[in-house]
Design brief:
Length: about 575
């Protein structure tokens, strides 16, 4: 790798980050929407926005007195931002400039593109790629389909800037690079482990790094018949595990005092099979591809099998797929050529790392054996983002060789530049789809309608008033209730400033006083809610087969009030005067 001055390297790193942001913005086209309207207003995106709002208003993510009325919501059993204190600090930093949770959510998501591109560039440069190739490959890595399909619905997974660091540790163990030799190397290794542990996407990226590092250490130790790789890899895994457990200390203290809660986030070993991936899902075109025939080919394949998250989130795109297939091909050919090195060690180690990731993530793979002991990490298809990095590293190594071969020839410099530009353009277009752009108009209509509705409630209710929400839905991870999706009851809280909401009592933690009230007849419900101090009843009509007609008639009779109705007709409110 040609040595550059620190300022030059910093400039190129900024260019890689900027190009990654530009590519992401060209796909999302955020200028066509409003920054204060989330890019997804459904499912887990509502939970993440509510968590961000809780951090902005209450300091951190363990408690939220605005939810779970008449008590307060506690998230020790289900910390949606758990394992990600580094991302929470970034959220709090953005919150210094705005208190709007939607703006913070959108800005954080947009920042994940330059952050991922920057991390990938720094690691690729460390792995000897030239500046132009590292910039191109890091930009492609930042706009893998995974980034857009995870989006704000899986916000922390979209912030996968820790993955290149984890990949570097895996390759270092395979290379038997001295990670702990000397104070400087040890501090650098601990810093990498800290970023991985503290930006782990709810412990997924840290767990994947630990599994791959441990596997790499075992293989390297067997290959050279030495304990040294096992010690090095064990130390890396140990530091990541220790730091990850540190983020759970408040939960451990809470569980020691109150017992664990098997009713929340309970996973079964079979889910590791259901949420695994297939090789075809990695290399087939993306869903909604720009080229109609390729889009149809993908749809035809997907129609053959039950739909899982792997169907949408794991495609690599043609450039990374070629790199991935090349790595697997090298591994297979190397098996029949013992004693003969067919490629530089970095290329071979990348192939082995990609193969290890595939063997864990594949349907019926090694993940099943991990799940027998620890089923909490269930979505092993998410290892595709590690595979994508190793694949683009292989592409980068091949591009550097091709450009080096072209350079001394007549017009070689121009040909090399054209080759690099062509790969970058082809990859960016192939990996992205116009369907990745949020539906800004419909999102704004729904979000503004809810916002105006809640503003009207706050205008007529005293500060701190409690609002009872119907239909009752368990928290967290509840099935849809007719047309009302999980976490839809967070919508009221997302728009409020000083109201308290009944939704958010953690299931499995004592008797929720709202459960029996929600099943009562309207007259008794109204009396009991007044006795508890609630100021009104909020109804999501999507949670009823008849659109809430029968319930609202009973509530109108019981309260003697006409409901306040949202502009889009979805929400209604009955004051309890």
């Amino acid at each position: 790798m040609h040595r550059l001055s620190r300022w030059s390297e910093a400039g190129y790193a900024a260019l890689a980050a900027g190009l990654s942001f530009l590519f992401g913005a060209l796909v999302l086209q955020p200028w066509k929407g409003a920054l204060d309207v989330p890019y997804l207003y459904l499912y887990d995106a509502n939970l993440y926005q509510a968590s961000i709002k809780g951090v902005l208003e209450h300091g951190w993510y363990w408690h939220n007195s605005s939810l779970g009325a008449p008590g307060q919501a506690q998230f020790f059993d289900f910390p949606s931002l758990g394992g990600d204190p580094l991302n929470v600090l970034l959220i709090k930093f953005i919150g210094l400039f705005t208190s709007d949770s939607a703006v913070v959510l959108n800005v954080f998501f947009l920042l994940t593109f330059p952050l991922v591109g920057l991390a990938a560039y720094l690691v690729l440069r460390r792995l000897s790629l030239s500046v132009p190739v590292a910039i191109a490959c890091s930009a492609l890595y930042a706009v893998l389909p995974y980034h857009f399909t995870r989006g704000e619905g899986h916000l922390l997974l979209s912030a996968y800037y820790a993955v290149p660091l984890g990949a570097w540790l895996v390759l270092s163990v395979l290379e038997d690079r001295p990670l702990w030799a000397g104070r400087r190397a040890a501090l650098g290794t601990v810093a990498l482990c800290a970023v991985i542990a503290f930006a782990s996407a709810s412990y997924y990226y840290s767990a994947f790094t630990v599994v791959l590092v441990a596997s790499a250490a075992l293989l390297r130790g067997l290959a050279i018949r030495s304990w040294r790789p096992l010690v090095q890899g064990g130390a890396v895994a140990g530091v990541i595990v220790a730091l990850s457990l540190l983020t759970l200390v408040p939960s451990f203290v809470y569980w020691a005092a109150n017992g664990t809660n098997p009713g929340v986030a309970h996973r079964s070993a079979y889910e590791s099979e259901f949420y695994a991936l297939k090789f075809a899902q990695l290399v087939l075109p993306i869903e909604g591809h720009r080229i109609g025939r390729l889009a149809h080919a993908r749809k035809t394949y997907d129609d053959w099998f039950p739909r899982t998250e792997a169907a949408v989130d794991t495609p690599l795109g043609i450039v990374a797929s070629l790199g991935f297939v090349g790595l697997l091909g090298l591994c297979l050919v190397q098996l029949v050529s013992p004693g003969r090195r067919l490629a530089p060690s970095l290329y071979g180690n990348a192939g082995l790392a990609a193969l290890l990731a595939l063997l864990f993530a594949w349907v019926g793979g090694f993940a099943l054996f991990v799940a027998a002991f620890e089923p909490q990490i269930r979505s092993w298809n998410r290892l595709s983002i590690f595979i994508g990095f190793f694949a683009l590293l292989a592409v980068g190594l091949a591009l550097d060789r091709a450009i080096a071969w072209l350079r001394p020839r007549r017009g070689g410099a121009v040909a090399g530049a054209v080759l690099l530009f062509g790969v970058l353009t082809l990859g960016a277009l192939d990996q992205t789809s116009p369907s990745y752009k949020p539906a800004y108009d419909s999102l704004a209509a729904s979000y503004r309608s809810d916002g105006d509705f809640v503003s009207a409630l706050e205008a007529r209710l005293p500060s701190g008033a409690m609002v009872f929400q119907l239909p009752y839905s368990r928290f967290p991870e509840a099935p849809p209730i007719f047309r009302m999706a999980d976490y839809d009851l967070m919508r009221g809280y997302l728009h409020s400033h000083d109201l308290r909401w009944s939704y958010g009592h953690t299931k499995g933690r004592g008797d929720d006083p709202n459960v029996p009230i929600a099943s009562e007849k309207a007259p008794q419900m109204v009396r009991d809610l007044k006795g508890e101090g609630f100021a009104g009843i909020y109804v999501d009509r999507f949670g009823y087969t008849d659109g809430g007609v029968a319930l609202e008639k009973e509530l109108a009779d019981a309260t003697g009030e006409k409901p306040l109705v949202s502009r889009d007709g979805r929400l209604s409110f009955f004051p309890l005067s």
